[in-house]
Design brief:
alpha/beta; binds 1,4-dihydronicotinamide adenine dinucleotide; 10-stranded mixed sheet; 2 domains
Length: 343
């Protein structure tokens, strides 16, 4: 006898700041339109929770993610040069989400400099200059600590190579500035090189980060999987987003051994928050990564096809992509494409 019991996933939901509530609403609606049943468990973090509780990363949020194993997250604002430390960085460290995986792909119909980008960014997520160790030595003199360990460098390198093998990728490029930071970036590069020896079928090379930035703009298709420490990974991600239409297009998955948190590469976009014009595509693709993580590959494929169809065939697109559609109009179009694709 067939079992008609439907699986429902409990997912911690962080609507986030700025455009966060607008795009999480859009992306969760698109997920629900696939028929995959999700019980969203909402929690605040960042400024909202700091103002209410004095804690940007409250224990009940962390407990919820530990219980559900998975979270879907809007961006969180971090004040520049003042205020509490980034809740984004703290969340990744607290849950040991050591990998930040960011697929960067061109999509037909989206205006961009190149038409055939297909890159994978693997960013180390727990250390480097994001160690949070900085202090004023004396007035006018500040100091920050760049922490690189072989433990973290080895495991992120292994993730990059395993991912390359699993996904049929050909090459991993380690990115560094080991000519200047000989010990820290040198250790990162040595770790990547050492791990690469276990993967003879995957080509390995390395690039100094400033050269990489130039090469990415001139000839991005020479790269396949980029393996970077935390800060370079952060900066290079935005550069790569610029190659495929902008920050509204690129998703991210923060992955550890036990938990995973899915969000977009972009931030809370305060300049357009509340205007109803944010592009929810990046976060929708983050939902696709989440569905694949849950094994819901068919639903993931259907969302990808629906988004591709809307962007390729309709003029419905948000202003960042040169259109005039609101977030809701674009989301309606994706949901309609999903419905017609499944009929
Ligand atoms: P941002 O990524 O929020 O915005 C940069 C530019 O891209 C803005 O012009 C914005 O309007 C545009 N943009 C970003 N996402 C868009 C979308 N979905 N649709 C249309 N346009 C979009 O970067 P910014 O302004 O440097 O940072 C704002 C805040 O976000 C800061 O407090 C920062 O700390 C935080 N942030 C949070 C992240 C996270 O939660 N993971 C990641 C990056 C930044």
């Amino acid at each position: 006898m067939l079992d008609f019991t439907t699986m429902s996933y409990r997912i911690t939901l962080i609507p986030g700041d700025g455009i966060g509530p607008e795009i999480t609403k859009a992306a969760t609606r698109i997920v629900e339109a696939t028929g995959v049943e999700c019980e969203w468990v909402p929690h605040e973090a960042g400024i909202r929770s700091y103002e209410k509780t004095g804690n940007p990363l409250p224990p009940d949020l962390l407990d919820s993610i530990r219980e559900n194993k998975i979270a879907f997250k809007g961006p969180l604002t971090t004040l520049v040069g003042e205020g509490f430390p980034s809740a984004n960085v703290a969340l990744r460290k607290e849950l040991d989400l050591y990998t930040n995986l960011r697929p960067v792909r061109s999509i037909a119909g989206v205006p961009s400099r190149y038409e055939d980008i297909n890159l994978i960014i693997v960013r180390e997520n727990t250390e480097d200059l994001y160690s949070g160790i900085e202090h004023m030595v004396m007035p006018g003199v500040s100091q920050g600590m760049k922490v690189i360990t072989s433990y973290a460098s080895n495991r992120i390198s292994r993730f990059a190579f395993d991912y390359a093998v699993r996904r049929g990728r050909k090459k991993v490029t380690a990115v560094h500035k080991a000519n200047i930071m000989k010990l820290t970036d040198g250790l990162f590069l040595d770790s990547a090189r050492e791990i690469s020896r276990d993967y003879p079928d995957i080509e390995f090379d390395d690039k100094i980060v400033d050269n990489l930035a130039m090469q990415l703009v001139l000839n991005p298709n020479q790269f396949d999987v980029l393996l970077l420490s935390n800060l370079y990974g952060d900066i290079v991600s935005d550069l790569c987003a610029g190659l495929v239409g902008g920050l509204g297009m690129v998703p991210a998955a923060n992955i550890g051994e036990d938990y995973a948190v899915f969000e977009a590469v972009h931030g809370s976009a305060p300049d357009i928050a509340g205007k109803g014009i944010a592009n929810p595509t990046a976060l929708t693709f983050s939902a696709v990564l989440m569905l694949r993580h849950l094994g819901e590959n068919e639903a993931a494929d259907r969302i990808v096809n629906a988004v591709f169809e809307v962007l390729r065939e309709s003029k419905i697109r948000t202003p960042d992509l040169g259109g005039t559609a609101t977030t809701t109009e674009y989301t309606d179009a994706v949901v309609a494409a999903l419905a017609s694709g499944s009929s």
